[in-house]
Write a structure and sequence with these properties.
Keywords: Carbohydrate metabolism, Cytoplasm, Isomerase, Magnesium, Metal-binding, Xylose metabolism. It is found in: Cytoplasm. The chain is of the alpha/beta class. It has 2 domains: about 350 residues, Divalent-metal-dependent TIM barrel enzymes (TIM Barrel, Alpha-Beta Barrel), CATH 3.20.20.150; about 50 residues, no CATH class. About 45% of the residues lie in helices and about 10% in strands. The chain contains 15 helices and 12 strands. Helix 3 runs parallel beside helix 5 and helix 10 packs parallel to helix 11. The mean pLDDT is about 95.
């Protein structure tokens, strides 16, 4: 045990009128919504990297956090794990997520790094049995070390490609051993800065082959979880091969992987790609590749991915509306890929950031469920497109241009604009949030 979270109580649901900050006001894990417990709908996960590996630095200043587990040896790594599972016990969320570099020190060789990871995985296994916390997904850090400055799968150096492949194998093995329900590929440096030194065609082929290898290995070891790719616009590479859901889907189709791989979609990345979060979720759902989400938000004045905890209920409600409309999560869940502000130094800040975020998500999901049960939005959409279902229009999309032109002339079709009723629907939405 550590004493980092000393005197902080286990967080329980106490309702909107709770007298303490250390309580859930809206997240009641046992409450049933649309026939399912809130805990089973939301499937919350804590992100190990932001909560336990991030030191509070920014481009203009270094570490602001003092944590008792800072260090680069196995003793520090195990102390970090002990503190992490203490937070998990306080929050009671069912899952966590991690990269390999978050949880183990870098070794003098790849083999030593792998052994360090395996030792920590064994430690995790013991902690998971003690607390009941499960692994939502594992992933590999293929971006922080300088060896990955030109990418991993897309790197011009075949040794880096090989090192990245070996790293992913070790992380998939770890995820499998811990019963992880998904495995994520995070392509933060799979892109380029300038075409002056880039062979686009070669790099795309490398990326496609790399992902195929991952899928093949997952099948080989009997991994039953879902392989996920996370779209990453402008973070940090200028031109990303995995820019948004549409771009990734085209990539998956090109390499025949659209039935094998789904998406882990982050709110902040959707915004950086010029989309809304609900747009990316709806598109992934309609394409059959919606898997899991990273829940956070950006500072809309900064123009960067600031990874803040969510606090906007209407935005969150629209996101969960698209998720619930697709039937809800299966292996996926709500991972808080969010970090404290660098001035929020205390253990209480880390706990309360998650408490507030879990309450916001609970409010958003409840609102989304109420919206679906009301049916007003779907009724409005159905009415807007109703003429497409009339018998005289049934064959329009299978006709050719000459047939359509003849019909327009014969029937003297002269359409008038119809209102999209956006403000009316925004007013409808505000009844729920």
């Amino acid at each position: 045990m550590t004493d980092f979270f000393r005197d902080i109580p286990k967080i329980t649901y106490q309702g909107p009128d709770a007298a303490t900050d250390f309580a859930f006001r809206h997240y009641d894990p046992e409450a049933v919504v649309m026939g399912k417990r809130l805990e089973d709908h939301l499937r919350f996960a804590v992100a190990y990297w932001h909560s336990f590996a991030w030191e509070g630095g920014d481009p203009f200043g270094g570490r602001t956090f003092d944590r008792p587990w800072w260090g680069d040896d196995m003793a520090a790594a195990k102390a970090k794990a002990d503190a992490a599972f203490e937070l998990f016990a306080i929050l009671g969320q069912p899952y966590f997520c991690f990269h390999d570099a978050d949880v183990r020190p870098e070794g003098a060789s790849f083999a030593e790094s792998r052994r360090n990871l395996e030792e920590i995985v064994d430690h995790f296994g013991t902690k998971m049995e003690e607390t009941g916390t499960r692994l939502l997904w594992g992933t590999a850090n293929l971006f922080s070390h300088r060896r990955f400055m030109s990418g991993s799968a897309t790197n011009p150096d075949p040794d880096v490609f090989a090192y990245a492949a070996a790293t992913v194998k070790s992380c998939l093995d770890a995820t499998q051993k811990l019963g992880g329900e998904n495995y994520v590929l995070w392509g933060g440096r799979e892109g380029y800065e300038t075409l002056l030194n880039t062979d686009l065609a070669r790099e795309r082929q490398q990326a496609g082959r790399f992902l195929s290898m991952v899928v093949d290995y997952a099948h080989k070891i009997g991994f039953k979880g879902t392989i996920l790719v996370e779209p990453k616009p402008q973070e940090p590479t200028k031109h990303q091969y995995d820019y948004d859901v549409a771009t990734v889907y085209g990539f998956l189709k090109e390499f025949g992987l659209e039935k094998e791989v789904k998406m882990n979609i982050e709110q902040g990345h959707a915004i950086l790609a010029g989309h809304s979060f609900e747009h990316e979720l709806a598109l992934a759902r309609d394409l059959g590749i919606l898997g899991s989400i990273d829940m956070n938000r950006n500072d809309y004045q900064s123009g960067w991915d600031t990874d803040q905890f969510p606090n906007n209920v209407p935005e969150v409600a629209l996101a969960y509306y698209e998720i619930l409309k697709g039937g809800g999560f299966t292996t996926g869940g709500t991972n808080f890929d969010a970090k404290l502000r660098r001035q929020s130094l205390d253990a209480e800040d880390l706990v309360l950031a998650h408490v507030g975020a879990m309450d916001v998500c609970a409010r958003g999901l409840r609102a989304a469920a109420a919206m679906l049960e009301d049916g007003g939005l779907e009724d409005a959409r159905t009415a807007r497109y109703a003429d497409w279902d009339k018998p005289e229009n049934a064959g329009l999309l299978s006709a050719d241009l000459a047939q359509i032109a003849q019909r327009v002339e014969d029937e003297d079709i002269r359409p008038e604009p119809r209102s999209g009723r956006q403000e009316r629907l925004e007013n409808w939405l505000n009844r729920f949030v």
